[in-house]
Amino acid sequence: MDNVTTDIIHIGINDRKVDLFEGMYKVPNGIAYNSYVILDEKIAVTDTVDAHFGDEWLAELDKALGGKTPEYLIVNHMEPDHSANIAKFAKKYKTAKIVGNTKTFAMIKAFFGSDYADRRVVVADGDTLKLGKHTLKFTFAPMVHWPEVMVCYDVTDKVLFSADAFGKFGALDCDEPWESEARRYYFGIVGKYGVPVQTLLKKLGGLDVSIICPLHGPVLTDNLGHYIGLYDKWSKYQPETDGVMIAYTSVYGGTEKAVLELESQLKARGVDVAVYDLARRDFAECIAAAFERSKLVLATTTYNADVFPAMREFIENLKERNYQNRTVGIMENGSWAATAARVMKERLEKCKDIRFAETVVSIRSVPDPISQAALVALADELAK
Description:
This protein folds into 2 domains: 2-236, Ribonuclease Z/Hydroxyacylglutathione hydrolase-like (Metallo-beta-lactamase, Chain A), CATH 3.60.15.10; 241-383, Flavodoxin domain (Rossmann fold, 3-Layer(aba) Sandwich). The chain is built from 12 helices and 22 strands. Helices cover 34% and strands 25% of the residues. The mean pLDDT is 96. A hairpin with a 3-residue loop joins strand 4 (20-21) and strand 5. The chain is α/β, with parallel strands linked by helices. Helix 5 (178-190) crosses helix 9 and helix 6 (194-204) packs antiparallel against helix 7 (224-236).
């Protein structure tokens, strides 16, 4: 339990037991489920936590309340890692009202069998809720990243309760940089929805925000322009850095040898380059790295007249998240009938504003003088 401001208390939970977030994203450092209490004439609680931590969360809430009774539970997001304890809260605090929008209450009924018709406060986009000294303003944020999502802004303390926006993987007591795990979280979970994120950022543009309280990750208090600027870039699908990511798969080492040679050639030209073995690295980390840099090289073997499965999955994940505005280089390997280059290009051609490098590197099992020369030419092209 920590104070965000004099009147706002964080009562979130660190989950160090979870290994996969949403059943697919590796979280070796766990994750935080954040909830907040606004102490005023009418006390409001924003969101709950994951089902596994209901009793722990209610105990923290009791401490924060100091014997008082909450007037409202505000439900900004219905994903179960945040909404799972609505029924427990409602049972314990029988006079408290539930605040949400029409889509919120439809989901509440689906999850819990009741829409709390006698206790609900239905808000519309732009509505306000006065607690006393504090006034909350609600802004709808559909598809950031569920359709019912809304954020609320405390006009008094200039605090934005941002739902899943500005969240990150990792428990609050881990020390990895915000950017790396927030980027992996964003492109894994929200990346498809760049247009809705842009819409939300424009809606929030006129607010004087001093503190951002997300549902995952730390409360953000300093240099907010940096975090908002990254969200702006990410949701516009703009690269953060001018550099090259090489994503590859290799069966017997020939493709990897060519990749390492290309890496060496690029570094010799002063290019920022990062290399990812798709079969071994966390797929969400690979996706985030592809969006971070301005250029991407895909290098893989021909496999069953297609491409290696890890590469196929990688490309499909890029497409699903609207990969665009990048330069892409292609390297293929095939001992007899190489088709990987054609297949990869066909799979990415429908992506918006993708420019393919003119040089295509084609290897026959292991690099030879011809493919070595093509590697040099590709390095020259990417270094421009």
